[in-house]
Amino acid sequence: MTYKNPPTTPRKSATFDDYTLSEIRRAAATGIYDIRGGGAKRKLPHFDDLLFLGASISRYPLEGYRERCDTSVVLGTRFAKKPIELKIPITIAGMSFGSLSGPAKEALGRGATLAGTSTTTGDGGMTEEERGHSKTLVYQYLPSRYGMNPRDLRRADAIEIVVGQGAKPGGGGMLLGQKISDRVANMRNLPKGIDQRSACRHPDWTGPDDLEIKILEVREITNWEKPIYIKVGGARPYYDTALAVKAGADVVVLDGMQGGTAATQEVFIENVGQPTLACIRPAVQALQDLGMHRKVQLIVSGGIRNGADVAKALALGADAVSIGTAALVALGDQDPHWEEEYNKLGTTAGAYDDWHEGKDPAGITTQDPELMKRVDPAAAGRRLANYLKVMTLETQTIARSCGKNDVHNLEPEDLCALTVEAAAMAQVPLAGTSWIPGKGGF
What we know:
The chain contains 15 helices and 16 strands. By secondary structure, the protein is an alpha/beta fold. β14, α10 and β15 (about 320-325) form a beta-alpha-beta unit. The radius of gyration is 23 Å and the shape is globular.
């Protein structure tokens, strides 16, 4: 009797997986690198790797329906004559008119106002819809200087000088010609229909000394009324935070690599910067070493999705968080309602990241007049406000379970980590132990 070897299942490489192989073929066929929007898609240590310990005997929880848990936050208390007062510690990140449609920008303003928080202009200037529907509007001052003018600086409630972004620290963004409509071209002083690349650094300074001069210039333009934020990507958070403080910032905005972008090279998105979780503690340590923690406020962004993420960021030392991608989803982006149209674009709801092409079926990341009509700013704004309300309630629920009557009273002691990597990054004990990697214990 003869025996045949049983068939084996073909084994694919973990290094050369299907996506990697498809990218090699695409690069070989086109000779150009891939451009896309969104944030990092690779799996990274994140807030899911942390847990709250809660209260039992050794801690006294608060009753959710009877005992108050405050969520308000004041930003810009260091030098500004008129600090920003928000009802919740969740803000809307900068997303430009150009990358987003006019109705989407209006919806962000409406939703933020209903929730009692701020929204941010992004690159490309301030639209009247956004200013008109945003009770509190932060004006971004970017290296490109698109749409920048002293009048709008004075009309804003705060100024955010953008040095870096989490999806592309050290890199600039892109806006393809098909999204540069007459209105976008006029606001940015650009030729219509021509691809544009945003600068990766400000043209008039090369380091923190020049940044200090720039901050003083902006303060003089705005009569020292407006808080000045400095936004940095998650590269060297300790030193970047320290230098921003020394340059005179009222607020530091720290954006990790899970943060999104309208468009840049995918190799940048996936391989430059650090996870949000790895950035928070060094930034807080810099503030503490300078004696400025809570005096200079820290806003954390990059992959914030729910109230648990908010609570964990606050527990690690942040004063507030900022959301971008999640806000767009709340407005209606990536909605399976448009699945058939996403399929025609060669993608699916939840994976669509070619925002730069201006073909978004949801009408949010486009300048196409017909697609934009699909966004009802009032209805989309209400959805965003609902989402922010739920996030806030979730944050309060966790804070009360830890015995805190203010979400800002959450602290690292309330947390443990599920993995060694998360424990090292967040500098909290590995679950079931008192061991913080690099700090001893058992």
